[in-house]
Please model this.
Amino acid sequence: MKKYIIYMGMLAAGLILGWLIFGNTSKLENDHEHIETTSNNEMWTCSMHPQIMQKEAGDCPICGMDLIPASSQNDGLAANQFRMTENAMALANVQTLVLGDSDTGANSLSLSGKIVENEESNVVQVSYFSGRIEQLNINFKGENVTKGQLLATIYSPELYAAQQELITASSMKSKQPNLYRAVRNKLKIWKLTDAQIDRIEETGKVEENFPIYATVSGTVSEKLVEQGETVKQGQALFKIADLTTVWANFDVYENQINLLEKGQDILISTQSVPGEVIKAKVDFIDPILNVGTRTLKLRSILDNRSGDLKPGMFIEGKVQGMNLKQEKSITVPATAVLWTGERSVVYVKTNPEEPIFQMREVKLGSESQGTYEVLEGLSQGEEIVANGTFSVDAAAQLRGKRSMMNKSQEEMADGHSGHDGRMAATPEFQEQLQEVFNAYVELKEALARDEFKTSSENALAFMEKLDKVEDALIGEPDAQGQWDQLATGMESAANSITKASDIEGQRKSFNSLSIDLTQAIHVFGIEQRVYRQFCPMVDNNKGGYWLSADKEIRNPYFGSAMHSCGNVAEIID
Model:
């Protein structure tokens, strides 16, 4: 009996132990099933191509980048804010700028300007008689001359005849002194010296060629004639600038005019001599405002006997001795601004610690040397996108955020179109841009065929087509500035391709060319479907884009080595 009781006790203990083990396992399995269900509902996307949505982790089918959880992209963000990855920013060459980083001080005002010739010391060297230039002793602009230096010799039929009159009159000067004096004075009017006149009279010989001497010392700023050319009396031969003194010209905005007056101290610095400061005074303030730039000129006279200051050199100045009762004006680089219709927009980095951006409309003032004055919309200390603005705007469009192309719901309700954000370009302009694109395609195909010489020739042809584009055909004045920025970048990249020593150098510049042309086609459009293609292995796996007229992949970055590497990343209609 005792044995049965022991067996029953062991059985009961086993049942209890089994319930504890298998009951908890069942609960864990239920929990695990719940977790899997939750996990399976999570979506994965690409930071560069947010239109990609997949139910599991993996690689982006467009660019090959690792997918990230879609829910992580908008955590804690406002409706029109969006986040970019560090990799995406590096790929698009996105650079930011903090407004007001440089402190100008409480009692000084910073101005930008350039060195120009001192107009008060400029001299025009002219011919004092008509004739033909037999010998020109000044051959190029920038040559230094000294007072009394021989500049040219001229054969003059009029002067030849006047010398014969002198010889005849000198033989009769005792009988007809008035005629003799009149002939000598005639030669003096033509700037012949008494010594030259006396020599003609004493030798009785007529000189065929007469010299022209420099009346001042200086630098030839402009050469106006060539050897063998016929000139008239009083015609300008050279412009000579005395560069021992130069002018420092600065641009002053309308809201700064009342802060400035003649005689104020100004500290001037140049990029050519970092750290060196030139002390000067405000010598002149132009009383007439330039209606185009909404600025006027402020001038200082600088001693330049050392020759360190070259006309055309950019300079910065700080006007001292004032109380700035108003907040310092805000300026942004032109590359930071996008225009669409009547709107001007920039992208603000809303979090200094994270790459989170949001579009901001701004009101612009005057433009000067590649910068715009901001009247409304930004404050000192804010961080904005200064380079790569088009790429940031493209990221906003793909995420469905407010951008240059996508307006807000409120704007759409007011009757504005929220879809088409292209600039107003005429069909004639689009035809010219089409020719540029066609030349680009020829260049792309040459690179894909590994043809170094043909690529250089096609880059030259591209530059010729680009030079023929007339920005006046763009309907909006602000859009002309946008085109000028893109055209400058394309010209620089194409020029680098022509000068590259090998095809690898050409392909590096082709990447920059592709970025600017893509932006131009996005903004202005052409009458053709364009395929934007991508290869993730370009530039040490950083990736590279290019444009094509068809879907077929012909990789310009690898050529025959990996001819079909890449895929269609975007179709631009």
